[in-house]
Amino acid sequence: MVKEQEVKDAYELAKARYAELGVDTEAALKAMEDFTLSVHCWQGDDVHGFLNPDVDLGDGLTVSGNYPGRARTPDELTGDLHEALSLIPGSKKKVALHSIYAVTDKKKELDEVGPEDFKYWVDWAKKEGVGLDMNGTFFSHPMVKNSMTLSSPEKEVRDFWIRVGKQSRKIANYFGQELGQQSVNNFWIPDGFKDNPIDKLAPRKRLMEALDEINEEQFPEENTIETYEGKLFGTGIEAYTTGSHEFYANYALTRNKLWTIDSGHFHPTEDVSDKFSSFLLFGKGLQLHVSRPVRWDSDHVVILDDTLVRIARTLVREDLLKKTNVGIDFFDATINRIAAWVIGARATQKAFLQAYLAPIAELKKDEENYDFTTRLAETEELKSYPFGAVWDEFCRRNNVPVGLDWLAEVRQYEKDVLSKRA
Ligand code: RNT
Ligand code: ZN
Questions:
Q1: How does pLDDT run across 349-359, given as a tens digit for each residue?
Q2: Catalytic sites, residue numbers
Q3: What is the whole-number distance in angstroms between the Cα of residue 289 and the centre of ligand 2?
Q4: What's the CATH code of the domain at 282?
Q5: Is the distance from CB of 345 to CB of 328 less than 8 angstroms?
Q6: How far is 297 from 153, CA to CA, in rounded Å?
Q7: pLDDT for the residue numbered 57
Q8: Does the residue 399 lie in any domain?
Q9: What local confidence, expressed as pLDDT, does residue 30 receive?
Q10: What residue numbers bound the domain in which 120 lies?
Q11: Ligand 1 contact, 59 CB (< 6 A)
Q12: CA 329 centroid distance within chain
């Protein structure tokens, strides 16, 4: 066990070191108290959901591994989420759901689930003190025809998915109403072609019209807002993605909605953090899906790597967090799933804390005065400042385990709960 006094002492030393550079660690800790992180529910059950849990995950999504203890019921999933959330510091958290996580009393189709089927989650969220975000589910269902949903040439197929989209908005509105905080409703649809299409325009036109139809009903924005997630490609749709980045950025801009940037959905050499200001100078806001692509959109557990550091730094330095919702999106079934949540969430928070621990105003002045020497010298030196001591103090103040102590708790939970799942 980490000794509390040592954490406090180390923090005092770190505070003094940062103060030399004009950085106020207390201000950074305070900023972290206001930082909201949306934790995706689907890491807990490998994206099975409760509606058709046996349908194979397809449509460009892959979860590998079969680590024991996958959550199979609503109570198992909320139990696991509760355990994970208790090991993640910070007072503002949300949980992101999908249509397939509806808890129904009788068998229902995907396009039939509505607010009444999410009462279970709302009751739980109230108890847990978290907000809820939403995602309509447009995959893993027989109505995905030839890799198409909302852009299908068949009206019957489009109409089915339009109903799914409309219902997802009602559900998100219900979350906002009940929980008193805006529910961000994310739309990702897997549509595309494996091989070169003749007509790239027509499917996009159908997708645009279907989204407009989904958006006909008006809901108060304080309850919910829609956000749209594009992709470069998916397995099985290598040649053409209907919902490309440009498609959704333009859709979001012209409809006054949000654009989702999933860090796994770009070319490996693209710096996603460079897109924030380019969009936000014109657009209403962003939703992030922080993920980790290893060679492709593999959805590895997020770690504190350069990409994540750049994402956090950019949002903090450019003061864009007030227009950006940060969520995580990954699924790894080769490791303990609760550990996966905790590692990914804590890495994301660490990146933001580190971003706050910099003399940002002074660095901006240096830059404006063409003092690129100080800019480089200081940002390099900062990398070895005692950031870890401030992070530990953040955990201590939030009553969550410091350092690796959380792993012992996960191991205990694994022994008491997960290992008993057949
Ligand atoms: C898929 C998208 C999408 C999903 C979740 C399950 O490529 O990233 O966000 O991961 O909706
Ligand atoms: Zn995503």
A1: 999 999 999 99
A2: 188, 229, 231, 262, 265, 289, 297, 299, 329
A3: 5
A4: 3.20.20.150
A5: yes
A6: 27
A7: 82
A8: no
A9: 98
A10: 35-358
A11: no
A12: 5
